[in-house]
Write a structure and sequence with these properties.
Two copies of one chain form a homodimer. Chain A is an alpha/beta fold. Chain A folds into two domains: 152 residues, Quinone Oxidoreductase, Chain A, domain 1; 155 residues, Rossmann fold (3-Layer(aba) Sandwich). The first copy, chain A, is built from nine helices and 15 strands. In chain A, the strands form three sheets. In chain A, strands 3, 4, 5, 6, 7, 14 and 15 form a seven-stranded mixed beta sheet that branches. In chain A, β12, α7 and β13 form a beta-alpha-beta unit. The first copy, chain A, starts with a strand and ends with a strand. In chain A, 52% of the residues are buried. At the A-B interface, α7 and β13 of A face α7 and β13 of B. β13 of chain A pairs antiparallel with β13 of chain B.
């Protein structure tokens, strides 16, 4: 067996929305694990909006990916060879293998998964980084109280679905936003949102605001921010006094500073006048709480009390197209790529 | 004695910076206190930036002042007549008398002052709303830690001076901004700031940022926001990860949404990427902590450990001019008007 490692590189930096030519697939000899290292065959890799930021040269969540270097990201797979006492062939693990068929990392950088708890790919979604993002952001910065109203966009995605379900369980009115009537129906029927608006159905931020105002008759107490752009513009004037805005992303603005009907002074003024608390966060700074999250959410996801949706692209080579589609809202649930 | 009540009305709404014709002085018969009411002769009235917001028709901290109605604001004075058991002639009190020679209010809306604690006018400054704003914003939202760096503008004003001195006492590096070399010298010499930059000496936000970066070699952990505008634009890229921004005002933006080199997407992105916590607040929502503040700060102000500066305009009729000058940074310390 002369297996090779296939991986996708950042071929060039995108200008605006990423295009196919920004990515390149390469094949290299399969690495042999050095001392303390573990070789893993990837089964699923994750596609997440944050990856868009790392394609740019500017400061973002983390260091930019160098042009010519492999695209970074989380993946789950099975150990093939191990030079680390903590891992044996056959173990299922999570690690930052990048967009690749295999990963070869120090054992310290891998997390062993309980294959019996839930399907493996959930470690990339509902029980992984996105679900954890929703749980941490909501509990630490959203501070939900029964009877309040929460709004979250990308309602069927892995962050929005987690936030919405947790808030609903905590006794809040939960209003989602999603792109398309099908996703809106899913948000209500599958995830129990009280209402979900199709942001594509409104020609302007003002029109969207009108619909939101109807769906949130008592205003908005928590806006869980993962999109920015027109949704933020629509939401902001509806925020109640002492409202909270956890900010985990702004996918609408990742392709460069689009024009916005919202000015910085107007945004700042609203924060002041309504006594808003806005907290940006990067979930990688908070993994000290991940054990608590898993303990609390693992059983609820396993039992079906907290639900999830997955979009699975087939084959590593489909990752760029799936990623580009996701940035345009083409996915419904958590976007993963099935590799092996 | 046929004393009259003199007061200043909002004659018209300003377009941009307020002008003399937006105000009108009128004289009316002195009111007689009704049941439970107290008639007070004003000694000092307060001029504060927040008053600018109330001159506009739009939503601000509170209801707009109606055109033709008296300008609102706090004042201190002496009780002349009392129909309330809690007050007797000669008592010194604080109340919202507006821009007026006398106030006639229910006793419940007055606060009796300890005339022996400190000069009466301090109830409008260091020991009043502005000092309380600085203390509450810093302790509740700034969460200072020794060794960190804090930046605050209007450094010699009653909010900035309180924030700077409290932060300095807590072991922070404190860098101020003020308009003019004289104020900067005062910030350092009188209030103990480590450095103070004259924002007028820099032609652009970029130039100001360069100077701030030198004055804050380890970045900025707390930006106590009371000005907005170019200072915010200069400060934002220097904020450290997990920085805090209490927002109590934005005087640079009160005269309408000026152009800003800062876009809403850029502002939002910085909040996310640097994990900033931005909290707007209106101090009137927090008077449950005022007793604690007075107990803690009263002795420190009385002993001279916490210092203050006052600008005193003479005569009610000078209030509009003093107010307009203050909005342009013409004052050095707390601006009050001596009425009687």
């Amino acid at each position: 067996m002369t297996e090779t490692l296939r991986r996708i590189l950042l071929a060039s930096r995108p200008e605006g929305a990423p295009r196919a030519e920004n990515f390149r697939l390469e094949e290299v000899p399969l690495p042999q694990p050095g001392p303390g290292e573990v070789l893993v065959k990837a089964e699923f890799m994750s596609l997440d909006p944050y990856m868009r930021g790392r394609m740019d040269a500017g400061e973002s969540y983390a260091e930019p990916i160098a042009v010519g270097a492999p695209m970074q990201g989380g993946a789950v797979g099975e150990v093939l060879l191990s030079n680390h006492a903590g891992f044996a062939p056959g173990d299922k693990v999570l690690g930052m293998f990048g967009w690749a068929s295999h990963g070869c990392l120090p054992g310290e950088e891998l997390q062993k998964l309980d294959a019996g708890l839930a399907p493996l790919s959930l470690a990339l979604g509902a029980l992984g980084m996105p679900g954890f993002t929703g749980w941490h952001g909501l509990t630490a910065y959203g501070r939900p109280k029964a009877g309040e109203t929460l709004v979250v966009a990308a309602a069927t995605g892995p962050v929005g679905a987690m936030v919405g379900q947790l808030a609903k369980a905590a006794g809040l009115r939960v209003v989602g936003l999603a792109g398309g009537a099908d996703k809106c129906a899913l948000a209500v029927e599958t995830f129990g949102f009280d209402a979900c608006l199709d942001h594509r159905a409104y020609a302007s931020a003002q029109a969207l605001r009108g619909a939101l105002a109807e769906a949130c008759p008592e205003g908005i107490d928590i806006y869980f921010e993962n999109v920015g752009g027109r949704v933020l513009e629509a939401v902001l004037p509806l925020m109640n006094r002492f409202g909270r805005i956890p900010v985990c992303g702004m996918i609408a603005w990742y392709d460069g500073a689009a024009e916005s009907g919202l000015s910085a002074p107007a945004l700042w003024r609203r924060v002041l006048v309504k006594h808003l608390c806005v907290t940006g966060f990067i979930i990688s700074n908070h993994y000290d709480r991940y054990g608590t999250f898993l303990k609390e959410l693992g059983p609820r996801v396993a039992s079906g009390q907290i639900r999830y949706l997955e979009d699975v692209a087939e084959g590593l080579e489909t990752a760029p197209a799936a990623f580009m589609a996701m940035l345009k809202g083409g996915n419904t649930g958590k976007q993963v790529v099935k590799i092996a």
